[in-house]
Amino acid sequence: MSERATSGIPGLDKLMSGGFVKNSINMVSGATGTCKTIFGLQFIWQGLQKGENGVFISLEQEQEDIFADVECFGWDFKKYIKDKKCIIEYLPTWDLSELPLLVIDRINEIKAKRFVLDTLSLVCSELEPNRMRSELSEFLNKLKHSGATSLLTNEIPEGSKALSTFGIEEFLVDGVIVLNYLEFVAGGSPRSLIIRKMRRTKHGTDIYPLEITNKGLTLTNFTDVTEMVLPQKEKLGIRSKLKRKHKRR
Fold first, then answer.
1. pLDDT computed for residue 184 by the predictor
2. What is the DSSP letter of 15?
3. Domains contained in the chain, CATH given
4. Which end of the chain is more exposed for a tag (fewer CB within 10 A), N or C?
5. In the chain, what's the furthest Cα-to-Cα distance?
6. What burial class does residue 81 get, using C-beta atoms within 10 Å of its C-beta: 0-12 exposed, 13-18 middle, 19+ buried?
7. Are 22 and 148 in contact (CB under 8 A)?
8. What SS3 class is residue 83?
C-alpha cells in the first residue's frame, strides 16, 4: 500500500485512501474564487503540524499578502520560516529555463516534504505550444524525484468544462482535484470539490460540498445527489435512475 501525505482538508483524506500518494504530483484546478491558493497553503500548514517542512512558491502574490490572507485561520507561517522549516516565496520575475532548478534548490534547502506552486498556468503560458508537453513533463519528473509531495494550482476559465488551462496538464500529473463555485450547490454550500483523477488510489466519485471555516477549508461528505442544485433535466434524470435502481432491488 502506498504511503500517504494528508491533505489538511478535514473530510478529504478518507475519500483518497488516506491522502495524496507521497512524492506524487497533484493539480488543484478551478476558476477564480474557488480557494485554490488556500487549498495549497492548508496543505503546507498541515505538513508543518506533522513535522514535515514545506515550500510554497507564488508567481502572482507577495509574501505579506499571503500572510494577511491566512491570518483569519490562525496560520502563523512566520515562525516556521524563521526556524527554516518553511519557505514562502514570491517570484515576480523568473526565467523559464531556471525555474525548475530554483524549485528543486528550495526543496533541498530545507529538506521539504511538501511543495506547492501557485500557479502552473503561468508556467505553461511561457512554453512554446509545440514543446509544452515535453518541457512540462520534464519539469514534473524532476519534481517527482525531489522527495516532496507536490500540489500545483491551475486556472480554469469561468464556465469552462476543461480541467486545466491548456488541456494537457491533467494528463501529466498523478492527481486532479477540481474546485467549483456556484456551479454545483451541494448540501447548501456554494462551493464544491470533485476528485477527478488520483492514481494508485480508490477515491470518492461524488460532488462534495466545500466550506470556508475559521480554521480553513472543510469538506463534508455528501451522499444524496438528488439534493444538488443542477439543471432541472439533469436532476430529473438522476431521480429517474435512482427509482429504477430501487425497483430492481
1. 76
2. G
3. 4-248 (3.40.50.300)
4. C
5. 62
6. middle
7. no
8. coil
Q: Which three cell numbers stand for residue 220?
A: 463534508
pLDDT at 220: 78
Q: Which three cell numbers stand for residue 90?
A: 514570491
The residue written with cell numbers 524549485 in the block is 103
- Containing 57, the helix (H) or strand (E) segment is strand 54-58
CA distance 39 to 28: 8
Entry pTM: 0.86
162 vs 52: CA distance, rounded Å? 33
Q: What is the pLDDT of residue 247?
A: 46
> What pLDDT was estimated at residue 186?
59
- In angstroms, the CA 219 to CA 237 distance is 26
Decide the pairing of beta strands 114-118 and 216-219.
unpaired
CA–CA distance, 197 with 235 (Å, rounded to integer): 24
Pairwise CA distance, residues 94 & 59, whole Å: 9
8 A C-beta contact, residue 177 and residue 196: yes
Q: Report whether the peptide linkage leading into residue 119 is cis, meaning its omega lies within 30 degrees of zero.
A: yes
- Give me 11's grid cell: 473530510
The set of cell numbers assigned to 157 is 476559465
Indicate the angle between helix axes 36-49 and 63-70, nearest 10 degrees: 80
Distance CA 151, CA 182 (A): 24
pLDDT confidence of residue 183: 80
* Buried b / exposed e along 164-200 (16+ C-beta atoms within 10 A): bbbeebbeebbbbbbbbbebbbbbebbbbbbbebbee
Task: Please identify every stretch of the chain with a pLDDT value under 50, giving residue numbers as ranges.
Answer: 223-247, 249
